Amino acid sequence: MSEPAGPRTLFEKIWSRHRVTEREDGQTLLYVGRHLLHDGGATAFDVLRKRGLKPRAPDRIFATPDHYVSTATRKLAEIEDPRHREMVEKLARNTAEHGIRMFGLGDPNQGIVHVVGPETGLSQPGILLVCGDSHTSTHGAVGALAFGIGSTEVAHVLATQTLWQRKPKTMRITVDGTLGPQVTGKDVILAIIAQIGAAGATEHVIEYAGNAIRGLSMEGRLTLCNMSIEAGGRAGMVAPDETTYAYLHGRPYAPQSAEWEQAVARWRELPSDEGAAFDTEVTVDGSAIRPMVTWGNSPEDALPIDAAVPDPESAADAERRAQMRRMLDYMGLTPGTKLTDIAIDRVFIGSCTNSRIEDLRAAAAVADGRKVAEGVTAWVVPGSEPVKRQAEAEGLHEVFRRAGFEWREPGCSMCLGTNGDIARPGQRVASTSNRNFMGRQGPGARTHLLSPAMAAAAAVTGRFADVRRLMGG
Amino acid sequence: MEAFVTLDAVAVPLPLPNIDTDQIIPARFLSRPREVNHADFLFHDARRVAATGEQNPEFPLNREPWRAARVIVAGKNFACGSSREAAVWALFDAGFRCAIAPSFGDIFRNNGTKNGLLPVVLPAAVVEDILAQLEASPGARIFVDLPQQQVTAPDGSVHGFEIDPFAKHCMLNGLDDFGVTAAYEDDIAAFERRYGRENRI
Ligand code: SF4
Question: A150 CA to chain B: closest CA distance, Å?
Fold first, then answer.
C-alpha cells in the first residue's frame, strides 16, 4: 500500500488520497467525498430499505430531479404521466426521509445533476465524486475524479460511503495547437472519439492535456469531460488551474474566505507531476479540428461539416460494413450526400453536455436577427435554474424567442426523453446532447450530435450548415 | 445474488459492435422497480417491427432455436453507454446468465457481476470465430466454467478468460459487496476521522 516513489498523475493523487484499504487481490475500497443523486435512482433506496440500511453520511450527498421533470412547467402536480411524477416524488421522499439536501423543483439551484454539481461548487478539485449516471465524468473538468456507477453500487455508496474498485489504467490525450473559429469543446471531443473510437478509452481514466485544452473555458472543459464515457472512458479529467479557481470562487458550496486560500494551495498540488507515466498516450492536432456533426448511431461516427455521408463499401471489414448499412438505414441517409444537404426537423439545445451559459450565448449569437427555418421545431432547454436566470438577465431568452425557438424549463428533456420530450419516428434532430443511439430521442428518431452554435445554424438554415460561413468565421 | 458456477446453454449471436444499453432497454422503461419482470423490455424496439409493433421474426432473439438462449455473444463494446442497471435486469429476466464480447462498457461489466450475469471478454478473433459457429449451426451450445475461467465453444475449442478475483469470488458464492464491506468498518471509520480533518468539503 505504500506509494510508489516518483512522479504521479492527477488521477493517482486523488485515487490514493481516497483509498481506505487495498486487498491482496487488487480490489481497493475507496471513500466517496461527494455523492450526487437524481430522480432516476429510486431503486438504490429500495435496496437500502430491504436491507434495513441508512445512508452513512447524508451531508456528503446532494440531490436534484432532472430526468423526469417537465420542461413545460415547474409544478409537480402538472407532470402529466403519473409514472414520471412518481419518480420526482420518490426522490423528494427518499431524500427527506434521510436528511439529504435536495434542490427540488422550484429550488433556485435545481437542474441537470451534472450542471448543478460544478455550478454550486459541490464538485471540487481533488475529490472523489460518484453519481448513478454515466455522464458523471463531467465533473472531472474541475480536477475531480468522478465516474458513473450502477444502482447496486449507488446503494452500496449510500450505506457505506465507499466503493470497491480495481485501479483503472490511465490515458493522456494531448490536444495541442490553436482551435479555429467556432471550434468548441464539443467539436474537440467528437474529433477525439472519431479518432480513437467509442471503445478507445475502455478501462481507462482520461486526462486531457495540451494548450488547446488549457485554453478552453470551464464550460468547454465540462463538455469535453462529459463525453469521456462516449469514448469508453471510466472518467475524464482536466488538471485544475487559474480557469478552474476563477470559475469556482464564490460558488455557494466552494470553500469560503480563509478556507478558500488553503483549498487553492492544496489544489495547486494536484496536477500530474512532470514525467508522470500514463498507460496510453494519444495526441490530437487541435488546429486541424473543424466543426463536427455525427451521421451514424455512435458518437464515433462524427465528421467535419464539409464532409459527406460515408459509403459502407469503403469500410475496413464486413462487421463494420454491416453496421454502417444498418445505421444508414435507420438514419435514412444515402452515401455521398453532403452533410450540408441534409434537412432537419427538430433542434434540441440542451443536456448536461451543452446547456450552460456559454453554450446558450454561442447559440444565441447565431440565432440573433435570424429566424428558425420553416417547418423546424427548435427548443432551448437551459441546464439549470441558475443558467436560466443568467440567460434571462442577459436577454438571451428574448433573442431565442424572437428567432422562433421555444425557451423551456431546466431538465434532461430530449437528451433521452424519459420525461416524455421525444421526437416522432423518422424525425431528424440536430442535438447538442451526447448520444445518437438508435431510439435515444424516441423510437425511430434520428439524432445528429453537434455544438450549440452548429445546432442554431441548423435551426435557421433548416439543414446542417457550417456556422463559420454564417458567422463569417 | 444468484450464484454462477458453470453454465451449459444455447448461445445467440449478435454480431454488431457498440450495442448500447439504450438498445438493450429503451429509456422509457427505466421507471419500473426491480420487482417488475424486465424480460419483455429486452431489445424492446430492436426486436419489433417499427410500423406495426409486432415481433420481427428476423431478430435473432425471436427465432426458435435462440429463444432458449442463455448466453449472448456480441461485437466489441457491448452494452456501452448509459449506466442503467436495468440493462442487466432485462438480460437476466430473459434468462441470460453470460455475455461474451471482445470488450464491454465498463459500468455494465460491473453491474453484471453484481447481478449474476457473467461478462466474459475474449479476443476479437475468437469472438468472431464463435459468432460464425453460432450462425452456421443455430441452437449450438456454449459451456462456461467460472472456476476454471474457461469457455468451450460449439466446435470444442477451449478459451481461457480473465476475471477480477474479487468479482469471481462474489459470483461463485452469490455474495454481494455489502457483506464484504461490513468487515472493514474500522478502516472506514478511521479513514473518516482523517479525511474529515484534511478535506473540509
Ligand atoms: S442530460 Fe442526458 S446524459 Fe445528461 S444526465 Fe440527463 S439524460 Fe443523462
Answer: 5
